[in-house]
Amino acid sequence: MAVVEIYSHPVLHRxxxxxxxxxxxxxxxxxxxxxxPPLLVAYRSQGFWLRETTYREQPDVSFKHQILLVVQxxxxxxxxxxxxxxxxNQLQQGRVRVPLVKSRExxxxxxxxxxxxxxxxxxxxxxxxxxxxxxxxxxxxxxxxIFSAFTMECxxxxxxxxxxxxxxxxxxxxxxxQQKYPLGHTGRDNRFNTPIIDSTSIFPTAYDLRTVFxxxxxxNVSTNFVSHYPVWRTGRGTGQPFVISATVRYQEETILYxxxxxxxxxxxxxxxxxxxxxxLFIFDRIKTFVFENQILNTIVDSPVKKLKQG
Length: 310
What we know:
Elements (H helix, E strand, L loop, with lengths): L13 E3 L5 H23 L8 E5 L2 E13 L6 E5 L2 H7 L7 E7 L9 E8 L9 E12 L4 E13 L6 E12 L8 E2 L19 H9 L3 E6 L4 E3 L8 E8 L3 E5 L3 H32 L6 E3 L1 H7 L1
Parallel strand pairs: 8-10, 9-13
Antiparallel strand pairs: 1-15, 2-14, 3-4, 3-7, 5-6, 6-13, 7-8, 9-11, 9-12
Helix pairs in contact: 1-4
């Protein structure tokens, strides 16, 4: 008749000794060598404390309908300009040329966040005027939500120049986030939610592109318009305006941030426990060998002996 195992359980052997013995010191040393070295190994192997990490988020970007435009109309420095900032226009006096501006934002995936800005700027010109370069600043509101509630004013800078007079400029690119330092993991962050250009200023230096770029590039968080394929066409017809066509896409970004306390603990705990399991296995085998073979003298309390005596 076949025999089938239907239940099993281990036999527990207890090893006893007084406090001040070699066996006690051995067990205490095993305890220290089991729990402390894994911590040192995890820490010294780098990455134990997660000082910064990343996540993916599509920013909530909206065009503020604020622009600053400068077009160079000669090789000797003559230019035309216009802006939504009235103080800037007053400073330009006779160089102001009001363009026809059309813009629309598109939410292609219907997630409630705009995905792109489509804009055309038509600059009226005299037949004797030509355009050799374009400087166009577009201003946006930029928001993040998943961790810290981050809000800032940012900009896209569109520039192109050519030795040949142009009829139109077409650019398409991405508004990319630039970070020098990680963001926080919680709370509100409005450090950079301030105007890039002080529109209340009546001084020309406030609108000088060198001043604007120097201040903007010093921020810890900013944006950069990346366009690799600008198209500059020549041959403007009589009485035709110079046309700028721009598409600015708002791409999903990889955000660098500082993790919170519990995320740090979770990350460190996973590393520590994965190494600790190896040490627990090794020192359990060492202690079993030492006490089963009575290398260190102890009193053995075994249920097998009690059963025989009974």
